[in-house]
Specification:
Layout (H helix, E strand, L loop, with lengths): L3 E2 L2 E2 L6 H5 L30 H28 L4 H16 L3 H39 L13
Antiparallel strand pairs: 1-2
Helix pairs in contact: 2-3, 2-4, 3-4
């Protein structure tokens, strides 16, 4: 039966001529708008699960949050804040201690690394602003403001 493979229905969009012409036959777009020839479709979906699956998801979320807190503490103590460096010392411990899958463990490590990156950038901006104010205050002979302290995320 035409249009079916392995019991699954396949659908084709476009004209009949588009079925016969392959990517090699299509001209490649050029110019400044060459990347604008595609469109992304975004759909908002709601995951509907049973009680057992909902409890499993909730349990995994709790374990992942606990893992993120533990990873953050370990990263702060080791003074390592880049994802690859954290991954070197925390990955296997997170997998074993929190019983998380490889993907969730890596996502937790990435989340902590990104949080530290954001915190450091924010701290840098705050410190820069305080330094500018302190220069002005020093010229006026007024007391200087203390620099903000960096704290664990």
């Amino acid at each position: 039966m035409e249009g079916q493979t392995c019991g699954e229905e396949t659908k084709s969009f476009g004209s009949e001529s588009s079925k016969t012409s392959g990517p090699a036959d299509s001209p490649k777009p050029t110019g400044p708008n060459r990347h604008m020839n595609h469109m992304n479709l975004v759909a908002k979906v709601k995951l509907q699960v049973g009680e057992v699956q909902a409890n499993a998801l909730l349990d995994t979320s709790k374990k992942a949050n606990q893992a993120c807190n533990w990873i953050s503490e370990q990263a702060w103590e080791a003074n390592q804040f880049r994802q690859f460096e954290i991954q070197k010392f925390a990955y296997y411990q997170v997998r074993e201690q929190f019983e998380l899958s490889a993907q969730v463990s890596i996502q937790c490590i990435a989340k902590v690394a990104n949080a530290y990156t954001s915190a450091f950038q924010s701290h840098k901006l705050q410190t820069s602003a305080v330094n500018k104010k302190n220069k002005k205050l020093a010229k006026l002979g007024k007391p200087l403001k203390p620099l903000p302290a960096m704290k664990p995320v």
